[in-house]
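General statements about sequence and structure are easier to judge against a single worked case. For one protein, we set the task of working out the structure tokens from the amino acid sequence alone. This step matters because it turns folding into a mapping between discrete strings. The amino acid sequence and the backbone structure tokens for this protein are reproduced below.
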Amino acid sequence: MRSFASDNNSGIHPSVMEALAKANNDHALGYGDDGWTREAERAVRKEFTPDSLPLFVFNGTGANTVALQLVARPYQSILCAETAHIYVDECGAPVKATGCQIRPIETPDGKLTPERIEPFLTGFGDQHHSQPGVIYLSECTELGTIYSPQELRAVTALAHEHGLRVYMDGARIANAAAALDVSLRELTADCGIDLLTFGGTKNGLLNAECIVVLDPSLAREALYIRKQSAQLASKMRFLSCQYTAYLKEGLWLSNARQANAMARLLYTQLSNFPEIRFSHPVESNQLFLTMPRKAADRLLESYFLYFWNESAGELRIVTSFDTTEEDVATFTEIVKEALEAAR
């Protein structure tokens, strides 16, 4: 049975499996000094900027810790939404790696705005206080909402005015670009983002993420931080070749469009049940909703799902690049049976 718990539970796209098999045909130099990695770097730069630096790493937490170490110093603070992955879900890894204080900001929709950030831009030059140093954004947010380019430019303008860097956790940036119908560059470099993660694992790759350093002044130090953070793969070609396949003929985009389309279809189907209430707008491939607890417990007998807010009975449902209309129909029918049994 297909999973709706997380897009991490999905499989690997066949094109990516094929790329891995081809990369396994012969020997190649390690640590990224190979033709597969050069090819993938060129493909990534084409999507972002010619002078950007792509750094392939193993996973999302590794990407976040490498990126944040690059732009933050231990005496600084990292500002983020209170729902941010680095604050809620990474077991303190970013704090341990950077030594920074993380300052969560309350938001109703997971998105930071200049108005919400400004009260935290204090204490500059005061040796008794952590110095605001980095703004962390998620695109898509942990609530499935999406920043528009205009919203991103407003945040980066404020950040740079005060000397802060902006890091975008783009674990699901493909879903955001697909929903907005904009290019990756329009959503990042053109908005003033300093560096980002170009996510792959949640969208059809095996075990690969890519940090894209957009500010060339950060490039040299980035290589050392990746190595020191245990994120430099010895057999790098098996990470980088996935990105060549991912970017070929827009696979990243078609995968994200499929996931988003199935989320919209599922939203349409579930909206027919009066007992279901959606907590947030469905803008990407994530749905947040509540239903009677007896129905939820019955549903969980057939599908494993995460409670986003268990006290409120709020469930998170996630569609993937390989979710089909049949999967949605099957899930909807089981939801219907669970609701009927709970009445």
